[in-house]
Amino acid sequence: MTHGIRTRLALACALLLGTAGAAQAATVVTDWNDEALEAIRVTHPGPPMVARMLAITNTAMYDAWAAYDNKANGTQLGGELRRPASERTDANRRKAMSFAAYRVLVDLFPTRQAQFAAEMAGLGYDPTDTTGNIATPQGVGNVAAAALIQYRHADGSNQLGNVNGGAPYSDYTGYLPVNSPTQIVDPNHWQPLAVPDGSGGFVLQKFIAPHWSLVKPFALSRYDQFPVKAPARFGTFAYLQQALQVVYYSATLNDRQKTIAEYWADGPSSELPPGHWVLFAKHVSERDHHTLGQDVKMTFAMTNAVLDASITSWGYKRQFDYIRPVSAVHFLFKNRPIFAWAGEGLGTRVILGQNWRPYQAATVVTPPFAEYVSGHSIFSASAAEVLKRYTGSDYFGAAVTVPAGSSRVEPGLVPAHDVVLSWPTFTAAADEAGISRRYGGIHFQDGDVEARVLGRKIGAQAYTLSRAYINGTAGN
Fold it and tell me: H helices of 44-125, where?
């Protein structure tokens, strides 16, 4: 359901708002973000990697753009690339930004170089031009990108696998799960699952990026700059209560809630939650008829907020290593009857606790990393906070129609009729993203709510720093 629907989001929003013509007003910022999102859909990186990839892409474009502003500083070279007033044309800005975006995207997605080169050719640029002469826009873009690439290659993400001689982005901290796919030793901790691969076999989950708290942030001082309370411990009433709430959601899901759970699921073949908000930013760009400068400043702030959100979320995921609802329900209610969603087309029935499953595609079940705190909630809240501050209003006004029968979980059955999801405000969209994970059986209430609070704080802080770069008071 999610990928095809969301890639039509901008058109759907335009039609509902009566502004279909706005789709013609794309800038190179939205063009290169579209390229990045498609690369993400094809190569399937994990959520924190996606946040970093989008932040790098949009920071590269911002750093190149800043060279043609009278006061903005780049994040790596400050004002060293600044060009004289006579060169500050949109043509030069677009070219510099495109070269910067191209260079970092090839570094991030080397298997997509041909597609990125085709985009450059379509824009009328020669991707083989590697000049470092900053008297030319291509030189500005190349130099800005090189500085950012050098910085991010040593940012703790292990993008190149050179920290440990392993695979790109692989863990170098020695994380090992407490529980196994077949046994829960400690019901306070995450359990890797054996998930169906869709071909009759199974894939054993491995925690994605348990080292991510060590990645250099944008505005954060460290991943736990903003403290959270600890999640409920096994043996307490709160632990049992949160599991019962998940089961209650499962038992009472209606078509709209199922649709919300699927729309926001952002599974492995999608642009994932960080990319979802880049699509929303594109809608804002079209809605408000953004200039090139407005676009680059907005996405620079938003994607770096989401990067910081990934560092905080994954830091707490590693710190608490907390159990997912599916494992908790199986553990608490093994061989005990519960009233819950029973599977595709079966509705709500009495089932044994160990047979309960989240409202997710069978090949997903639950994400391969710990529960607390929610990535969806923190990504969405941080992005929404930036968009609210940047536009000067919480007004969003977007909507999408989910066609009848388009469910991946219950194809042909859900929803029974077309469902329109609409978001009057950025906050409403972020809140729906958060609660969608409770509807879907992926998160407990605290994992969602605590992450929303964190996201708003992170978004506000990242926005403030982005404005300092734009105003020339940071990066000196």
Answer: 47-66, 90-108, 113-123
Instruction: Tokens 């006004």: give the residue.
Output: 397
The Cα 377–Cα 434 span in angstroms is: 4
pTM: 0.95
Tell me the per-residue pLDDT of 190-237, one tens digit each, with 9 for 90 and over. 999 999 998 999 999 999 999 999 999 999 999 999 999 999 999 999
Q: How many CB atoms lie within 10 A of CB 437?
A: 27
Rounded alpha-carbon distances, angstroms, from residue 377 to 160, 277, 435, 444: 29, 12, 8, 12
DSSP 8-state secondary structure symbol assigned to residue 426: H
Q: Which amino acid is at 90?
A: D
Q: pLDDT for 323-380, tens place per residue?
A: 999 999 999 999 999 999 999 999 999 999 999 999 999 899 999 999 999 999 999 9
Q: Which two tokens stand for residue 474?
A: 């940071």
Question: CA distances (Å), 211 to each of 48, 175, 325, 340, 427, in order?
Answer: 11, 8, 23, 36, 30
User: Could you tell me the two tokens for 84?
Assistant: 């004289």
Question: What is the tens place of the pLDDT at every residue in 5-34?
Answer: 544 444 444 434 434 333 345 799 999 999
Residue 39 DSSP SS3: helix
Closest CA to 35 of 93, 121, 96: 121
* Residue for token pair 């020339």: 472
* Beta strand ranges found along 135-181 (DSSP E): none
3-state secondary structure of 168: coil
Q: How far is CA 266 from CA 73, 124, 273, 468, in A?
A: 34, 34, 6, 32
Alpha carbon distance 383, 426 (integer Å): 9
- What does DSSP say about strands 348-352 and 202-204: parallel, antiparallel, or unpaired? unpaired
What is the distance between the alpha carbons of residues 356 and 347, in angstroms, rounded to a whole number?
Answer: 13
Cβ neighbours, 10 Å, residue 17: 15
Q: Give the position of tokens 């809140």.
A: 431
Among residues 142, 66, 138, the alpha carbon closest in space to that of 104 is found at 142
Instruction: Please report the domains of the chain, with CATH numbers, ordered by start residue.
Output: 2-471 (1.10.606.20)
Give the whole-angstrom CA distance, residue 228 versus residue 319. 11
